[in-house]
Design brief:
Helix content: 55-70%
Radius of gyration: 18 Å
Shape: globular
Mean pLDDT: 77
Oligomer: single chain
Strand content: under 5%
Structural class: mainly alpha
Number of helices: 10
Largest sheet: none
């Protein structure tokens, strides 16, 4: 059974390679905003953290919510992501793209969290903790039953495969960019996405058929 229009819209038919230009760390130069954030990270780390958090917390939170399917857990890992980013400011170079760098930290933190199977504590920094924009909002797609099923299907995939699929089909990153974000080879990315695509279509179709015949 074919996925419904809603699922096709969300995942763009589980986007094939080459259907959208890359926009990550190695397929586009660093933007002026990236260069400013990197420079700020060297000169005033607390200010850089606040700027990154304000600019990107929503993107990181929504990505994590789609992967983890739990608002509180996604919030925790979002906080962990920016805490780890702050600790890694020294690794930033002039050519870094900040958002893909944050996706890599977020992906690793989320996978580590699931493997540990327990909640962790994160360092809340004063410049960020009291802002009214902390990402406690819920992603609206989680309220739609069909998209809750999509989340359930994603949870059934190996973590690295689900992240690769989300980065490609939802965030629009190319295989090369995902290899850099996930710290693996292009071959591994192709395998992860191919397997995730097949598993997702199979599981989603079975679930949709069950809902219609149940």
């Amino acid at each position: 059974m074919r996925p419904s229009v809603g699922a096709l819209s969300l995942f763009a038919s589980l986007r094939e390679e080459g259907t959208r230009p890359g926009h990550g760390p190695y397929e586009a130069p660093a933007t002026p905003a990236d260069a400013q954030l990197v420079a700020l990270a060297r000169e005033a780390p607390a200010d850089a953290l606040e700027a990154m958090y304000s600019a990107y917390k929503g993107r990181i939170y929504t990505f994590l919510l789609r992967f983890l399917a739990d608002p509180e857990m996604a919030d925790d890992v979002t906080q962990e992501t920016f805490t780890k980013a702050y600790a890694a400011f020294a690794s930033l170079t002039n050519g870094h793209r900040v958002l893909p760098w944050l996706y890599r930290i977020a992906s690793n933190a989320a996978v580590d969290h699931l493997r540990r199977g327990k909640r962790f504590r994160w360092l809340r920094l004063g410049a960020v903790a009291d802002t009214a924009d902390e990402p406690h909002m819920r992603d609206d797609h989680g309220r739609v039953p069909e998209r809750e099923h999509i989340q359930a299907v994603l949870r059934g995939l190996p973590a690295e495969n689900a992240i690769a699929l989300l980065l490609h089909a939802v965030e629009g990153y190319s295989y090369l960019e995902i290899a850099q974000i996930q710290g693996c080879t292009m071959t591994a990315v192709r395998s992860r996405i191919a397997r995730a695509r097949v598993s997702f279509r199979r599981a989603y179709g079975q679930g949709a058929e069950t809902r219609q015949t149940g």
